[in-house]
Amino acid sequence: MKRGLADGVSWTDVLKLVAAALALLALAIFGVPRIRAERWSLPGAAGSARAQGGVAIQEYPVPSRSRPHDVAPASDGTVWYTAQATGELGRLDPVSGLTHHVKLGQGSAPHGVIAGPDGAAWVTDGGLNAIVRVDAHTETVDQFRLPGRGANLNTAIFDDRGMLWFTGQAGVHGRLDPSIGEVELWQSPRGAGPYGITSTPDGSVYFASLAGSYVGRIDRESGGVAVLDPPTPRQGARRVWSDSQGQLWVSEWDGRNLARYSPATSEWREWRLPGSSPRPYAVYVDERDVVWLSDFSANALVRFDPTTEAFDSFGIPSPNAQVRQLLGRPGEVWGAESGQDKLIVIRFE
User: What CATH number is associated with residue 295?
Assistant: First the structure.
């Protein structure tokens, strides 16, 4: 007798189950470095890669209600992400679609994450008011508490000396020396607002102040800040990223522009994003010095070519994605869809 599939079960469903089983088997045999395979889960099938204008876009579901905020591609091919709503650090294996979460501590509400020079994940945790380090192999969690209360930690970056610099939206910026665990904190100009932060190839550190509407250059010796005002008043400089030449690219949330500042000449330029009412949030510069942004209003990822000064907009498959940060590695730009419990990657050649 010929036997078919049960009612309501398709061959696609069968293939997804087989793929998940094979992924778990591969993890059990080969492993993601020193992580037990049984601690990983499959939140759902990754979306098919969609081709748009010479790039491919793919989404990966993460556990429901985790509200991923920031992402950081790791050197082993996995991707770290902050699960802000659950107080955890997540890790995605893009090959299998499996995810794994690490609890950061009671009261945790992680915002930013970056991969450090030591291979660990470094998290800015507003709930704990601490910088948190998660070892990539053992998943040991170390907390470096800030002096005082309520910095509203946002984003961090390492400079060329191995120092970790960070911002707090409550109106502070600070530095952690990982070698001795010492945290220093300074009051930022104009009060509340410090948000995105970046380091240039020569080691200089800059941050963007959303409420203060400026870019600040930090004196790495004294902690003092030189204020750099973009041409558009009250533009809401949200995030900032350096290109390979040390030029700074800024997403102007309220100004609706992409701005560039050249430290060598102290010159500013601005370009308005396409659309009737763009809202540029995240900004990142890839290895080719091409600039990427997220546009809340258009629910899109936007590419800007500095050579041609042309924008290209790529719609995000899921509605109301709310991509708040971008980070990448060669050939890929990653983001977290805080509005959809998904990660997204745009791949290019």
Answer: 2.130.10.10
